TrEMBL record:
The keyword Signal applies. Transmembrane segments: none annotated. PROSITE patterns: RICIN_B_LECTIN (PS50231). The lineage of its organism: Bacteria, Bacillati, Actinomycetota, Actinomycetes, Streptosporangiales. Keywords: Signal. It holds the Pfam family Ricin_B_lectin. Residues 1-31 form the signal peptide. It comes from the Bacteria. SMART domains: RICIN. This is Ricin B lectin domain-containing protein.
Amino acid sequence: MTFIRRMLSCAVLATTVGAGLALPVSASAQAASPVCVDATNSRANNTDVRLWACLDHVNQKFVIDAGQIKVKDTIGTAREVCLDTTNSRANNTKVRLWTCLDHVNQKFVIDAGQIKVKDTIGTAREVCLDATNSRANNTKVRLWTCLDHTNQKFVIDAGQIKVKDTLS
């Protein structure tokens, strides 16, 4: 009898503790903070473009102008800065900052939430900006073959380029 009481009290305790941790079926876990494309604090050529928690900060403000994605705080200065793909279109190539030029490395098209490298559109292998599988601060933005994947879905909102799967 003592054994049965002890087992029942353990079961009640486990149920009580577990009940405090469980979510109702209709509830969902809270979404993580939104993540944005970030130009870092540097505007130097060859600076890696990264992901960072969305903030109301100049490092995350961009303007799309004639296919170029320009860092907003450089517009109208002697040296405007753009997102640049380098001369490579290989998977895992970093996206960087570079002085804005009228060059294919800086021409993009936004298509169904994907940011595609313009000179690859209509080819056998279109290339997109890709957030990788991480949403951690300082994760580098890269190029990858365009896929219907959350790593390549972005929302442009108030000058910010947000990773869509981080929005609630």
